[in-house]
Design a protein that fits this description.
With 787 residues, this protein is α+β, with helices and mostly antiparallel strands. It folds into 3 domains: 40 residues, no CATH class; 195 residues, Penicillin binding protein transpeptidase fold (Orthogonal Bundle); 330 residues, 3-Layer(aba) Sandwich (Beta-lactamase). Helices cover 35% and strands 12% of the residues. The chain contains 24 helices and 26 strands.
Length: 787
């Protein structure tokens, strides 16, 4: 049986209301020194009890900084986005219209300048009204409202679960509010209280404070508010939802008239002014505030990357909830590495290559880092940052690892071949050393050296062994490493790796920061298919790796944030620039002799007049294409490919063009070239470091040599592969020519549909290495020339 409430303490009964009235009055009387003396006398000894209760209540208001929006800026000072739970723009009392002050005092607390925090006369009147009427009225002074808003603000920032909103207050809450109001009046001037109140109070949904409200409803500053505008805002605070002039204009107008009447009653406006303003309709100039990365002014995917970095960093709070409170309420100023100029250029080029919403569904990205610092300078993709299901919309960031953007990355294809070349050079060979690219089959149980694997080696386990093919015909022959890398010959890369230690190759990748996008682990050396780019990689990882080649072998960790301060001026520790020499500078210089020709001759084709270098890449069945290139001042990864399935792009209509072949040089390469033509000159365009010893590159023989490759450098009869046209089988034709050639130029048994990324239909890449019969890791031979 439910316990029955005593009518003496049940505030729903008239008797309970009377008792509550006298009790609160007596307690308040102790506070305000005689304001409630007649009422206190009625309750007699109750005042003594009240006094002891009040002694235990806090005497000072423990304030927290006002909840303020956090702002994210580009490196060049452009506002990118705001994050807020409470959109607020603090202003001084001198920057608030006198009309606003008159309006709020008239309607909320007309004896504000007379009382000392608690208005005894007003309280008595309101209690009598509430006892004798079916409606209720509040009795809080502006000072009490200021105190309560401070308590709510502090509660949010501290993560407290219970907050003292109107309608949820207990008697104890109200008494604490009264005592703190009296204390506030002793410590603050009336102007300071008004300033605090008008900066704290809620006006509409997430809009707090008079300045933000003025900009929301009138697109002007609070110092310029007219009388009717001030009256409208002053009326809203009683019930922001009910009096919202957008959703409830009639209620808002009625409330505005009530405020105007109060202003007239308090001699703040004349009768003529009152009549004029009451007769006039509402006049709004509404400006919806934008917040979060979905409303970013530019770089929304980079904005989300920064947001995730903040939420993952313990510097900003003990747990993610605390970090989120700080981000949305702490008034942070976050300065990032992004260059708004480059971001605009990158966004223009990805949309020019594959427009947002293109029927092909193909994705395109560009991401740049500064090789000397690791600073991310641009991050663009050809989609709208949104969570709706419209074509061309996604919240998945294709540029970064799954942890930071929900994408599992894309197979790198031939962009991984330069790392094999680095290991080749580190072994003491040169770009002129010949490799036997003739061998194209490695039988089951064929053994490869892998010092980091169990037993120091790995074996080919597929029943049929590993069959390796090239896209350019008649290239299975001995050739220099330079020649094989320049024309991206699979058999050259694989046979070079066969002479090396696979773990030495993945060790190079580890040193430059290249890793899998799906789990952020290093590239797995136990399946040789990694040599031809079978494992999923993010464009940021690609740009960072190649930046090492631009920076003479020094890798700089990628970073997005350079400075964070809060509203109080406190600074937060952010990752500092961290660079490390990871490859000998002369090794890089030798590699760059080949990489420069790839970028200049085969990709830019004279369109860029400063030194550049890079490498193309296309995965197995042409669903993912790359060009990753660099100048001294910028390393940029360009990617174009499928994002939601593993189908080939061959025959697909992309931006009005049907592609019979899709290679890194066809879409990604030109996109990179157009972008770097604009962006490159804004950064260092100096020459790459020259090798200490010039190596003459020998032309590969047109005859079929023996299976054994030569480690010697044939310097006697050589011409640079850049100018070579002597191959009798026409295998030195340009990649562009090969793209237009007939299928007969490819090996008849070439597999074009093997391992690709396994993606969900919502664009959330969950890259696998094809855990099936076509698993490239288990059957690493299903490969053609990956560009």
């Amino acid at each position: 049986m439910a316990q029955r409430k005593s009518p003496f303490f049940d505030t729903a009964t008239t008797l309970g209301k009377v008792v509550a009235f006298f009790g609160i009055s007596a307690l308040a009387g102790v506070l305000v020194a005689g304001l409630f003396t007649p009422l206190a006398a009625v309750v007699g000894a109750g005042a003594t009890t009240a006094s002891s209760v009040f002694d235990e209540l806090p005497a000072e208001l423990e304030e927290e900084p006002m909840s303020l929006p956090s702002e994210v800026y580009s490196a060049d000072g452009k506002l990118m986005a705001k994050f807020f739970e409470e959109n607020r723009i603090p202003v001084k009392i001198d920057d608030i219209s006198e009309n606003m002050i008159d309006a709020i005092v008239s309607i909320e607390d007309e004896r504000f300048y007379e009382h000392h925090g608690v208005d005894g006369q007003g309280l008595a009147r309101i209690v009598v009204h509430n006892l004798t009427s079916d409606t209720t009225q509040g009795a809080s002074t502006l000072t009490q409202q200021y105190v309560n808003n401070q308590l709510i603000n502090a509660g949010f920032l501290r993560g407290e679960k219970r907050l003292t909103y109107s309608g949820t207050k207990t008697v104890g809450d109200k008494l604490r509010e009264m005592k703190l109001a009296v204390a506030a009046e002793k410590q603050m001037s009336k102007e300071q209280i008004l300033e605090g109140y008008l900066n704290l109070v809620l006006f509409s949904r997430t809009t707090y404070g008079v300045e933000a409200a003025s900009k929301l409803f009138f697109s002007k500053s609070a110092k310029d508010l007219t009388v009717p505008e001030a009256a409208l805002l002053a009326g809203i605070v009683q019930s922001p939802g009910a009096h919202d002039p957008i959703s409830n204009p009639e209620s808002a107008k009625n409330r505005q008239n009530q405020v105007l009447r109060a202003m007239y009653r308090n001699d703040k406006i004349t009768k003529e002014e009152y009549d004029e303003y009451v007769a006039a309709p509402l006049k709004l100039k509404y400006s919806e505030p934008k917040q979060g990365c979905f409303s970013a002014n530019f770089g929304p995917y980079f904005c989300d990357y920064v947001r995730r970095q903040i939420l993952a960093d313990k510097t900003f709070g003990k747990d993610e909830a605390a970090r989120e409170r700080l981000l949305y309420r702490g008034g942070l100023k976050i300065t990032t590495t992004l260059d708004s100029r480059l971001q605009k250029m990158a966004q223009k080029q990805v949309e020019k290559s594959v427009p947002i919403g293109d029927k092909s569904g193909v994705g395109a990205t560009l991401i740049s880092v500064d090789p000397k610092s690791g600073d991310i300078k641009a991050m663009a993709q050809n989609t709208k940052f949104a969570i709706d299901k419209k074509r061309g919309s996604t919240a998945v960031n294709f540029n970064v690892d799954k942890k930071w953007g929900d994408s599992g990355g894309f197979q790198g294809g031939s962009t991984l071949k330069p790392y094999v070349a680095v290991a080749w050079l580190e072994s003491g060979r040169t770009m002129g050393t010949r490799v036997n690219a003739q061998r194209d089959h490695f039988p089951q149980y064929d053994t490869w050296k892998a010092s980091c694997a169990d037993g120091g080696s790995i074996q080919i386990l597929d029943n049929n062994g590993w069959k390796v093919n090239n896209a350019i015909g008649n290239m299975k022959k001995p050739m220099t490493m330079d020649y094989g890398l320049y024309w991206s010959i699979n058999t050259a890369t694989v046979n070079a790796a066969k002479e090396l230690d696979l773990c030495k190759i993945t060790g190079v990748m580890d040193r430059v920061g290249l890793h899998r996008a799906d789990n952020q682990e290093g590239i797995d050396p136990t399946t040789p298919s990694f040599l031809l780019g079978a494992q999923p990689i993010a464009p940021l990882s690609q740009a960072t790796g190649f930046a090492t080649f631009a920076n003479d072998g020094k890798r700089c960790n990628p970073r997005a944030i350079t400075k964070v301060t809060d509203a109080a001026g406190n600074s937060y520790k952010v990752p500092a620039k961290k660079c490390e020499n990871v490859i000998d500078s002369d090794v890089v210089a030798q590699l760059n002799t080949t990489m420069k020709r790839i970028a200049s001759d085969r990709i830019a084709q004279g369109a860029i007049n400063f030194p550049i270098a890079g490498k193309t890449g296309t995965n197995d069945n042409e669903s993912s294409t790359w060009f990753v290139g660099y100048s001294k001042g910028l390393s940029t990864a360009a990617w174009v490919g499928r994002t939601t399935d593993i189908k080939s792009m061959v025959g697909l209509n992309i931006n009005g063009v049907v592609f019979r072949d899709v290679w890194g040089s066809i879409i990604a390469g030109p996109m990179w070239t157009r972008y770097m033509t604009e962006a490159g000159p804004l950064y260092d365009t100096g020459a790459f470091t020259a090798p200490q010893k010039k190596v003459r590159i020998s032309e590969p023989s047109t005859r079929q040599d023996s299976d054994s490759s030569s480690d010697s450098n044939d310097d006697s009869d050589s011409t640079n592969s850049q100018s070579s046209n002597a191959d009798a089988d026409n295998s030195t034709r340009s990649e562009q020519a090969s793209e237009a050639s007939s299928e007969s130029s490819r090996p008849a048994n070439e597999n074009r549909g093997s391992s690709q990324q396994n993606s969900s239909n919502n664009g959330n890449q969950s890259q696998s290495d094809n855990r099936s019969n076509n698993n490239r890791d288990n059957n690493p031979g299903r490969s053609r020339n990956n560009d």
